Every structure is written in C-alpha cells, then in structure tokens.
Amino acid sequence: MLVVYEQITSDIFRVYEEYRSDIGFSNSYLIVDERVIIVDTGLTSTPKSILEALKNIGKSLEDIAYILLSHAHPDILGGLKWLSSKTRGIVCCSQPTADLLKNSEEILVKSFGVNKNFSQLLRHKGININFKSLTPTRILENKSVISVDDKKIIVLESNGHCNGHLCFWMPQNNILFSGDELFPYSNKPNMFMIDRTGSFAKRIFTLELFKELKPQLICQAHDLPVTYDVANTISAALETQECWSRAVLEYFNLYSKASLLDIEEYVFKCFNVKLEGYIRKLENHSTILKILEFLEGKGLIEKVPSKNTRIDKQFWRIKNSDS
Ligand SMILES: [Zn+2]
After folding, report:
1. Quick one: how far is CA 234 from the chain centroid?
2. What is the largest CA-CA distance in the chain?
3. Helices (H), the chain
4. Residue 53 C-alpha to ligand 1 middle, in angstroms?
5. What value, to the nearest 5°, has the Cα angle with vertex 116 and ends 110 and 121?
6. Distance 124 CA to ligand 1 centre (A)
7. pLDDT tens-place string over residues 142-200
8. Are the C-beta atoms of 63 and 91 separated by less than 8 Å?
9. Among 49-63, 173-187, 227-241, where is mean pLDDT lowest?
10. What residue ranges of the chain are covered by domains with CATH 3.60.15.10?
C-alpha cells in the first residue's frame, strides 16, 4: 500500500490522498494524545488511510474522541459518514456547516450555485457526497475550546472561504489548522476560491489574523503543510488577494462598466489561470463575484440595476459613474 500518512510533529500526523491535478492533495490530520482528534475527513477513500495510520501508531477507531470539520465541502466531508458511524468520536462543526449537513446535495446548490445533478459528475471524479443527513454532536463557535487529554484547541471562525468555515488553533505549540483559508498560489482560484456563501473581506481578515498569531506550522486542508517560512507564506497569500482585487479594479479603469464574465476573463488572463472543465463549473465565477461584492462594500463600484437575475448577466460600474 502506498504511504498514506506522514508524521508532522511528535503528535500530529497528516493523512493524505494521492496528488491530483484538480484538487492537489486532500489532507486529514490526526492530533494524537491518549485519545485522537481528527481534523477534516478528506475524500471518501481517506478513512482507509486513517485506519492504516492509527494502526501504525498503536491506536484504533475506539480512540477517536473528536472529529472536527473546518467546513462543508465535498473534499472535506468524504470520510465523514463512515468515520462517524464507526467511532464514538464527537462530530463538531459550525452551525452553518451543520445546516448544510442536513442535506448534502444542498451544498452544491447553496455553496457552489450548481445543480444537484452535479453530484453525479463529482462522483465520477472520485468525490462522493455520501450521506443524506448527518447531525453533528457539538456546534462550535468562535473561541470555543476543545480539550482532549493534554491537548487544547481554540476554534477560530473565519467565514472567508465559505460561511461557517472554522480554523483550529493549538496555542500550546502554535500550530494552525487553516482548512481552505490559506493558499499562496495566484493562478489556481480553485485552490483559494471563495464559494457563494463566503466573503473576500473575511478571507483578508482571517489572513491578517493568521499573521498576528504567528504560527510555527500551518496544516492546510490541501497541499503540503507549511513548515518553514510561515510568516512569508501568509504574507504571500495576502498579497495574492490584494493582486486579484487590484486587477479587478484595474479593469474598471479601462472600462467603467463591465460584466462579471468580462472581468473574469481579464483577471484570469492577467494571472494565467486555466481551470479544468468540472472545476471551472464548480468555481462558477464565484471568486470574481466575491471580489466584486468586496469592492462594492468598500463603495468603489456598484451593481448596475438589472431585471435579469442570472449572475453572468450582471454588470458593475465605477460608483457615481454615468457611463
Ligand atoms: Zn473548501
């Protein structure tokens, strides 16, 4: 069997799936003391790897005390159904995540603005939303504390990547579990996308918070944990957000009125973005839309009133511009 986990620190293990060009690595983390805390459940196949890791570190499913969910996206929830049925681990998430877990197909509609049938396509891509309804045992809020044996975890509500997104902070050793809030890449919006329920302003706020926390190690839901140059990685992620919003504004300097799709085409060209078919459909113009909402909130641009409600038919213009 392929190596499916690695030890990050003396008590943190990263369980991951093979690298994929569409979503990179999908990670789940084990925080190990007498008992075990799981952070995110990866893809549907992830529990197999979790089992393997547990076995090799002398633990079993019985030892799982908590299953913490950063947010309700298919690549985070894949192993949830199986794990929650096989362990007594307390499933913890935010209220918005809990609301989405009532009917997992709603996640596609509400969070990505795509049709329920999209779940078929996702399944074809190896991402299976495999539960109908799940009720978490504990709802987490900002600053909620989870204590297991000697481990203490503080919950940070971030709400950038999506509404209800949580990050988890271990103050004893300055380790941050950032979920899908931190991606330093500028040409992969699927990696740092903000879904239809998320907020660009809150993403920036969250990255600023990360900067203040000064983590020593960041464990992300995708890709490799950030083990060195952590401060610079956070700064680079902040810069990426800044570059994208600046590029959107730049477009309005060229054309004072523009549609979402025009702006997206321009920004994607600027950053050499190429999204694959199904990822493009899932991204669904969301990131640029959230940047437009952010700039609108800052009073820099405004939406042009329109009877057409389709998002790709909406126009924005520089505020107070007559053109
Ligand atoms: Zn996500």
Report:
1. 15
2. 69
3. 46-56, 74-77, 80-86, 95-101, 104-112, 118-124, 189-192, 200-213, 230-254, 260-270, 277-283, 286-297
4. 24
5. 120
6. 19
7. 999 999 999 999 999 999 999 999 999 999 999 999 999 998 676 666 666 899 999 99
8. no
9. 173-187
10. 5-228
| 5-228 CATH | 3.60.15.10
Instruction: Compute the distance from residue 305 Cα to the ligand 1 centre, in Å.
Output: 31
Q: Would the pTM of this model clear 0.85, i.e. be above it?
A: yes
Q: Which residues surround ligand 1, an ion (CB under 5 A)?
A: 73, 180
Ligand 1 centre from 73 Cα, in Å? 5
Cβ atoms within 10 Å of 317's Cβ, excluding its own: 17
Quick one: fold of 239-318?
Arc Repressor Mutant, subunit A (1.10.10)
Element holding 219 (H helix, E strand):
strand 217-220
Instruction: Identify the CA nearest to 160 among candidates 218, 207, 93, 108.
Output: 207
CATH 1.10.10 domain residues, the chain: 239-318
299 CA → ligand 1 middle, Å: 28
Nearest residue to 244 via CA among 224, 219, 221, 263: 263
What are the CA-CA distances from residue 102 to residues 11, 98, 135, 279 (Å)?
Answer: 33, 7, 7, 24
Kindly state the average pLDDT of the residues 116-127: 79
- Distance of CA 109 from the midpoint of ligand 1 (Å): 14
How many angstroms separate the alpha carbon of residue 27 from the centre of ligand 1? 12
Report how far ligand 1's centroid is from the alpha carbon of 76 (Å).
7
pLDDT digit string, tens, across residues 210-229 = 999 999 999 999 988 999 99
Q: Per the structure block, which two tokens stand in for 93?
A: 């998430």
Token duo for residue 176: 């941050």
CA of 257 to the centre of ligand 1 (A): 31
